[in-house]
Amino acid sequence: MLVTSAPDSPPVGRARLADVAALAGVSVGTASKALNGAGRMRPETRQRVLDAVEALGFRPNQHAQSLHSGRSWTVGLMTTDGIGRFSTPVLLGAEDALGAGKISVLLCDTRGDAIREQHHLRNLTDRRVDGVIVAGRRTDPRPPLTGIDPAIPVVYALSPSADPADTSVVTDDRGGARLAVEHLLATGRTRIAHVTGPEHHQAARDRARHAVEHLAAAGLEPAAGRVHFGEWSEAWGRRAADAVLRTAPRTDAVFCGNDQIARGVADALRERGKDVPGDIAVVGYDNWDTMALACRPPLTTVDMNLAEIGRIAALRLLQAIDAEPEPGVHTVPCRLVVRESS
Amino acid sequence: MLVTSAPDSPPVGRARLADVAALAGVSVGTASKALNGAGRMRPETRQRVLDAVEALGFRPNQHAQSLHSGRSWTVGLMTTDGIGRFSTPVLLGAEDALGAGKISVLLCDTRGDAIREQHHLRNLTDRRVDGVIVAGRRTDPRPPLTGIDPAIPVVYALSPSADPADTSVVTDDRGGARLAVEHLLATGRTRIAHVTGPEHHQAARDRARHAVEHLAAAGLEPAAGRVHFGEWSEAWGRRAADAVLRTAPRTDAVFCGNDQIARGVADALRERGKDVPGDIAVVGYDNWDTMALACRPPLTTVDMNLAEIGRIAALRLLQAIDAEPEPGVHTVPCRLVVRESS
DNA sequence: AGGTCACGAGCAAACCTTTTCCTAGACGGT
DNA sequence: ACCGTCTAGGAAAAGGTTTGCTCGTGACCT
Q1: Which domains does chain B have, with CATH numbers?
Q2: What is the DSSP track for B191-245?
Q3: Is the pLDDT of residue A6 over 80?
Q4: Residue B44 needs a FRET pair 20 to 30 A away by CA distance; which of B35, B69, B112, B135 works?
């Protein structure tokens, strides 16, 4: 059977369906039906075909299948700012969900370059991908993809499309801020400062606004009466902690816009002789393990469930491919990870 | 021309080569030749075809091309331990180099699971990928892929294959250790400690062995007379720094096996009142920006040029696809990034 | 015993491009 | 003017699978 070259139909290389059919003594079409379950046929005929498939190690040629069906069983995954801390979990979540549906992922990194984006887009269109996921980094809306075949569904993850008619999956910054504030309130803190990133980042603005709102709902206002906007860095966290100690010395908790800031805050507080969480609790945002776990003490922080965002984006894409898309912005809830800093 | 449905050949959906040929008044075969440059033909005929391509926005159907040529212009990129700090730059480097060759990357993450690896491998084989890159995380050799079609070339990146007949691209741990030690010697340090990860990691063993060898070549031995093996964590760095100060108080430099350890060492030294680099220099390994730049002071560290490893792996793969593979282990040199900690 | 119905299996077209082989025409040389 | 050669372009097959349609056979009912 598996000799290197048979007399007339040499199965050198991979076996074709024709080889299977010949071995089973049926026509090619019948062999195909036996494999795909369609049509009715005698069980023993089907079994003969399956035996032949087994004997020859036949695997269908996906190029031929794709040519026939027009589907590639492939989606493009475009990351717009390199592949970093934020896009990686999204990417893995998407890959996981798509792999279950027998769909593979074509990776395209634009490095934030519009030319490169166009180039990848043309490539994906030429490959007749079944869909595209665009994974951003920031939560600010991004302009929708231009020049893509409207027949190819697109889902935006993390950075929503500026066009509300598109489908986007984003994190729930409101819920995240609420989780953090309510946790601090529940553990008895009342003089809570908020230190976060640059005000021109929507994530910083949203988290700050909702944190303040939730404090107000409890009849409180942020320590020192204002939000501390700055950078997403440890250095800013350290400077801000000093500022908070100076201007609002009775502060008993700091909610930080990300884990780097939180770590900087925790470091500075410790170096100023404050006990975390004894004197002041610290809560971060991102659950970036290398920061949250290496912090002294390990950080309580908000996890955005990035992998879940990727998974949901993939499911939305599958839905848009097979059925009707569900446009609009879908938010994925956050989760509070409590550790020793609060 | 671009009406939704012409009388007999409605160019609904995408234009086919037949549409182009019809518009240009030539046969399909001639249109193909005009596009691919092969065969001789009158310049004005070729131009007519190109004009038709332009008018219809024709793009060749890659499924048909792949079916014909047997090539998919696609390579599989398998990451074996999730996509993390180490594999991401490799992955991007590879994607970049392959994209230049009109080849796209199929992403497969095995999560370190052999079952998943087999599953992905079968999928890639079914898709007739032109080649596979296996990107590991640790530098310890890994068992070669099993059950892959021997006609598909494979290149291992970062984790070499245990089979020397395979092609692998790895980092130069010897050179990295030499860069660090020679830098410290050149800046006048002579009592150099080495703090690194677990001894069962080949990276830790290699860097330690070569560091010790280079010290010996200068007539020195490591401070405290031995290498400090431990974990790849900041906590271990802090503990080890204390141990070094206790057992070898005159130490004037610490070369660390990674940046996390280095940061822990720097933190502990500062907290013990030592000045870095005034009293003691600290050198890290990995050039992991979030660690190296956030460290106080910013870390001098060894950069493994991971993106270059990915790039070279991709080039080796392209070579193996188009021509003869060049088996064996290829090492990519490191680069020392000098900052303020030394 | 003959006719009809149903089920099993095969044929062929369609998916689209590339490439080889072949034909017809033109031009040049004798 | 005729023959040979060269070239441009067309026809057709190959690459492999899916699927609708058709055909044939067997069984059952009248």
Answers
A1: 17-60 (1.10.260.40), 73-171+306-333 (3.40.50.2300), 173-303 (3.40.50.2300)
A2: SEEEEES-TTSHHHHHHHHHHHHHHHHTT---GGGS-EE--SSHHHHHHHHHHHH
A3: no
A4: B69
User: Residue range A309-332: average pLDDT?
Assistant: 93
Residues B75 and B95: their CA atoms lie apart, in Å, by: 10
User: Average pLDDT, stretch A41-48?
Assistant: 86
CA-wise closest residue to A150 among A165, A162, A135, A136: A165
B226 CB neighbours strand C below 7 A: no
The helix (run of H) or strand (run of E) holding residue A70 is none
**CA A274, CA A266: separation in Å to the nearest integer?**
9
What is the rounded end-to-end Cα distance, in angstroms, of chain B? 70
Hits for CB < 7 Å against strand C across B residues 7-36: 13-14, 16-18, 28-29, 32-33, 35-36
Buried b (16+ CB within 10 A) or exposed e, A26-47: beeebbbbbbeeeeeeeeebbe
Q: Which amino acid is it at B232?
A: W
Nucleotide with the nearest C1' to A27 CA: C10
Strand C close to B2 by CB, under 7 A: no
Nearest residue to B65 (alpha-carbon basis) of B9, B17, B104, B132: B17
Backbone φ and ψ for B321, nearest 5 degrees, come out as -75, -45
With beta carbons under 8 A apart, name residues in chain B contacting A122.
59
Amino acid at B145: L
User: B3 vs chain A: nearest CA distance in angstroms?
Assistant: 17
CA distance linking residue A4 with residue A13, whole number of Å: 9
- Is B126 in contact with A66 (Cβ distance < 8 A)? no
User: Per DSSP, which regions of chain A are E strands?
Assistant: 74-79, 104-109, 131-135, 154-157, 167-171, 192-196, 228-229, 253-256, 281-285, 300-303, 328-332, 335-337
Residue of A nearest to B88 (CA): A83
Mind listing the pLDDT tens digit for each residue in B127-166?
Answer: 999 999 999 988 999 999 988 888 899 999 999 999 999 9
CA–CA dist A78, B58 (Å, integer):
24
Whole-number average pLDDT of chain B: 91
